[in-house]
Amino acid sequence: MRKILNTAHIYMIIGVVSGLYSRELTKAEDFTGDTQLDVVHTHVLALGMLFFLIVLVLEKQFTLTSSALFGWFFWIYNIGLAVTVGMMTLHGTLTVLGHSSGEAIAMVAGLGHILLTAGLILLFVTLGKRLQPAPAPGSDAAPDPDPAAPLPAPAP
To answer: Helix/strand/coil (H, E, C) string of the chain?
Structure first.
């Protein structure tokens, strides 16, 4: 759980720094147009910090890290987010500096999006494996007790 919290914290720092970078670079270059730098910090905060805070809650509830697929999800998603945000930052910086970005940047950004998608699929598969199956209709099996429900008082 600590690794998930630390990941969210790192993305919070990167998100704040990327917002500062965008503001200072556009101000230094007297740039007034639209650029991808404007949305980098939002992407990092939403897809990084907030996303991993949600994963932290899911970990607490379903113990996702006990699944072998969780490690695959964690690294593929993080690599995908790093590639995507890196290409957005590069493209935005080139725009502010008055240079065009080549087709290669768009292709690498696409690869980052593919990795993000693969990571999300792995997260959903992991979550699906950690959910308890519902009892079959008409079966006598009682549902699992609610883990958040208070325990009954011991008999005197």
So the answer is: CHHHHHHHHHHHHHHHHHHHHHHHHHHHCCCCCCCCHHHHHHHHHHHHHHHHHHHHHHHHHHCHHHCHHHHHHHHHHHHHHHHHHHHHHHHHHHHHCCCCCCHHHHHHHHHHHHHHHHHHHHHHHHHHHHCCCCCCCCCCCCCCCCCCCCCCCCCC
